[in-house]
Amino acid sequence: MLREIELKRGLKDVYIDKTMVSFIDGQVGKLLYRGYNIRDLAEKSSFEETTYLLLYGTLPTRRELEEFDATLRSNRSLPKEVVQIIRLVHKAHPMDVLRTAVSAMAAFDPETRDNSLEATRRKGIRLTAQAPTIVAAHSRIRQGLEPISPNPKLNHAANFLHMLFGKEPPDDETEIIDKDFVLHAEHGINASAFGARVAASTASDFHSAVVAGIGILKGPAHGGAAEEVMKMALDIGEEDRSKEYARKILDSGGRIMGFGHRVYKTVDPRSIHLREEVQALGEKKGQPKWFRILSKVEEVMRPYAGRGIFVNVDFFSGTIYHLLDIPQDLFVSIFAMGRIPGWTVQVMEQYSDNILLRPMLEYVGPMDLEYVPIDQRG
Ligand code: ACO
């Protein structure tokens, strides 16, 4: 006699463990990293400081931050073999290239087989430093250009833009990308962090866990939505077409990308900061229309608020990248670069009190069929 099964499809609302990393209240739109409100971190912190906070659990002193920043800056270069691999696969989507390069990094990291917390943190720091180099090198190689070496005089965000475009970015653009990284750095047990934790729960290595996270983040229901939002905005083209366009998608049963969230049943707090940036950057670049287009789409989505469907982090981030001349297919890679500290700390937490993550499926297929030899099958 089979016991009664309570199905939790999609693991909705299922708590699988305790965490000391992020607190998310989806009803009021509150997000804390290590107890600190994302609002304060977005406005006052930097990606380097936020990464330290996530990986060590406390805000650094000035001296600790300087040392940590120096470690990040000195770990940005890639093994030449990984650059060769990027050249070999350069025609693939940037997320596939990032996934492949991160996987290859395991072959060159001196501590790949060490799953201790200290080694995992060190690997996370190295990969946080190296991920922008991978993304920027690929972007150059596929344009027929040579990769640009990291510049240790620049901070994390500025160095990324420098390696991507071959020139030092203006301070305000560096600040926008820095804020974007802070906002994307960690988000509890979302789908990609869950995947990373599943890998860690088998005592697999850190790079395998991050590779799982990258593969999962790529999907349009997760990090891939930013690219889809920008495609939609470009397709709409003009502000006065926005409402009709959005209504058509909804009337045909489609979804507006950048809306809805498994946890937030109100405005995603991360989107508040990005909205401000899109508006200001659009004005500065003489392209205010993207913000206006998105605002009209939001108006169409207003009735969906009653069903808990609000704007999420991906609705505005793509437009920021577009305004900075970043190609659309790099959007989700930028998300991934920012999320490496989050995946690292999730993997560390999983290792620190490990239990195999292994749910169940209810079997609903046929039972006890008779095996018919192949020459007797009709
Ligand atoms: N537009 C229109 N309707 C929506 C949207 C949307 N963006 N999102 C959800 N809905 C509707 C669904 O059609 C469904 O309606 P129904 O009950 O009548 O069938 C209902 O809301 C619930 O949707 P689910 O898919 O069951 O909700 P779930 O929590 O599983 O999905 C998800 C969350 C995947 C993010 C969903 O809202 C979605 O597909 N959004 C668009 C993609 C997107 O923006 N993803 C980025 C999320 S943020 C991030 O990952 C960083």
**CATH class categorisation of the largest domain:** Mainly Alpha
Total of domains:
2
Total strand count, please?
A: 3
Taking all residues together, what is the mean pLDDT?
Answer: 96
Shape: globular
Helix-strand sequence: EEEHHHHHHHHHHHHHHHH
Rounded to an integer in angstroms, the radius of gyration calculated over CA atoms is: 22 Å
Helix-strand makeup class: mainly alpha
What can be said about the biggest beta sheet? 3 strands, antiparallel
CATH superfamily of the largest domain: Citrate Synthase, domain 1
Name the beta content range.
Answer: under 5%
- Which CATH architecture of the largest domain? Orthogonal Bundle
Portion in helices:
40-55%
Q: Low-confidence stretches at least 5 residues in length (pLDDT < 50)?
A: none
- What is the overall number of helices? 16
Quick structural summary:
The chain is mainly alpha-helical. It has 2 domains: 22-220 and 329-352, Citrate Synthase, domain 1 (Orthogonal Bundle); 225-323, Orthogonal Bundle (Cytochrome p450-Terp, domain 2), CATH 1.10.230.10. The chain has 16 helices and 3 strands.
What does the model show?
By secondary structure, this protein is mainly α. The chain folds into two domains: 223 residues, Citrate Synthase, domain 1; 99 residues, Orthogonal Bundle (Cytochrome p450-Terp, domain 2), CATH 1.10.230.10. Helices cover 55% and strands 3% of the residues. It has 16 helices and three strands. The chain has a three-stranded antiparallel sheet with strand order 1-2-3. Strand 1 and strand 2 form a beta hairpin. Helix 6 runs parallel beside helix 7. The longest helix is centred in the middle third of the chain and has 26 residues. The mean pLDDT is 96.
